[in-house]
Amino acid sequence: MVSVDVEDMGEAIANILTRPGFEGGTYEFCSVKQALTRHEMAEMLGRAFNRKIVAGTRPIEKALQAERFKHYTPEQLEQLGSLFKFFDLNGTPGFNNRTLAMILGREPTSYEAFARRLVQELNVN
Fold it and tell me: What b/e sequence results for 27-63 when a residue is b if at least 16 CB atoms lie within 10 Å of its CB, and e otherwise?
């Protein structure tokens, strides 16, 4: 999975809107250098929360029954299901954090740092 810290996103958008040189661009926001699996994300959350957290799965067919997909045609649902199956088998390759780092002028927040901040914000532990 690819993630972006919402605070990094807000800072990046502010930079794009207020600093010269970003006009007319299209920017991919990603906080990680390479995609994380749901298992890696669960492990990082578990360390931060000091609890065992395990990533589960939901059958794709069940996921496609969600309310947000009700307006999709059967063909669109089939295509989306194929995409989900591909990602489940192969991950989401091709992402990096170089663009976000350039816009921020620093390294983006790692998923592990986000998880630690979440624990503090929720006042857990």
Answer: eebbbbeebbeeeebbbbbeebbeeeeeeeeeebeee
Q: How far apart are CA 21 and CA 30, in angstroms?
A: 20
d(CA 27, CA 16): 9
Residue numbers of the domain that contains 43: 6-122
When pLDDT is cut at 50, 70 and 90, the band that residue 34 belongs to is confident
Rounded CA gap, 107 and 5, in Å? 12
Max mean pLDDT range (27-36, 53-62, 102-111):
102-111
Nearest to 96, CA basis, from 37, 28, 33 = 33
The CATH number assigned to the domain holding 57 equals 3.40.50.720
Q: Is residue 83 part of a domain?
A: yes
- Comparing 45 with 34, the larger pLDDT belongs to 45
